[in-house]
Amino acid sequence: MTVDEGIDISPTGDRGVLKRIIKEGEGTATPGIGCSVTVHYTGTLLDGTKFDSSKDRNEPFEFPLGKKQVIRAWDIGVATMKKGEVCVLTCAPEYAYGARGSPPKIPPNSTLQFEVEMIDWALEDLSPNKMKGILRNIIEEGTGDSKPNDGSQVTVELEGKLKDGKVFDNRTVTFTLGDGHESNICEGIERALEKFLLNEKSTLILQPKYAFKSKGNAELGVPPNSVVEYTVKLTSFEKTKELWAMEDEEKLEQAQIVKDKGTEYFKASKFDQAIKKYMKVLNFLDGLLEDEAFGKDEKKLSKAKELTLSAHLNLSLVYLKTKPEHFFEAKDHANKALKVDPNNVKGLFRRGQALVGLGEADEAKLDFQKVLDAEPQNKAAANQIIICRNIIQKQKQKEKQLFANMFDKFAKHDNEVEKARAKELDVIGEKVGEWGKGEGEWTDEQRTRKPTEFEKENPNILMLDKDGQFQNM
Known about the structure:
The chain is α+β, with helices and mostly antiparallel strands. 40% of the residues lie in helices and 19% in strands. The strands form 2 sheets. Strands 1, 2, 3, 4, 5, 6 and 7 form a 7-stranded antiparallel sheet that branches. Strands 8-9-12-13-10-11 form a 6-stranded antiparallel sheet, with helices on one face. The N and C termini lie far apart (115 Å).
């Protein structure tokens, strides 16, 4: 190896990837696996022939590091680069395009050189909406292909820090994925672990929404609305059976277990966790009610309907007890419950409550009346009907006042228009009344002046001719 060739950075030391730094980068940080890196590059053959350049296109290239979306040499070499660094990577064929090459520009068995400039990188975003709520930087790669799923028993080593570097959590803990809050494990860690391989070690940066939210965590000493950083290593896990691999009886059994767990959370006012469990019940039962073969077993069908109805009714109730912006979800699940059982009084009552929250008192009153028809002694429904009547009455009064104000404005406008017209007629009358030399004749000045807009609109009154001129009276 010569100085110009650079150093060997290939994993096995076989000189498959050589790196020569042209310009040193900033600091010490380098991107981890999964980071979205942005680079400029120019690729050449060993004889100097250029085959590609992002600089020529003035379009930086972005790709996820370590996800096998670029040649192997790039995943290896770019992972060693600092921000602002410029280097040359010399890539042997087995780390580039191999024996086949990439016709027509790259011949078979070509050793390639890339001048690469590291512009920047961003951590891997694992949040559902890709709004950087859960960012991951892999420190140590995991092994195998299997990952934990919801319900898996996992054991992790973790350390949690606040932004000021204060450590608030440092332990090894075993818990069921999906019930982590019982062990002070926040949502962001649980979501991230579903992307972990065995023995993976990663840094996670969690926004408050996926950490301890607006309440914080007094037990751990985390203030409200805190951004936290965790270092997490997945040391073991037992994966649960996938839904597609379950028999119908297993789905019903698991749905009942999860539903009961959701009810526990609801009674403890842990509404977020309750919602997750009830949604999981529906996931277990998805498609069963529409399955003709399943429907032939009346016992199983009845159980599936019972669980589906219960899940939707409970979801409607949970959403009613949370924030007002969830009234739509409460109504939606009540509707779905009523699709299973059209006369279900709980479904009617909860839909009515949601409709009141959405400002639809007329429709809500109809639902409460149906409840009262089915259960004449239902005082809650009777009270809700009174509430609806009061709301409707207030809405009518408000509308009456609104229309009254509108009519006042229209009357005022009409009055102003009439006054303007009267004034204009007075002016016209004065000019019409100016007789010339003979009775009933126009003066030259009257005949030749330009008619006003009002006069043009009223030719019969002012006797304009077809050309818009005053007639000779």
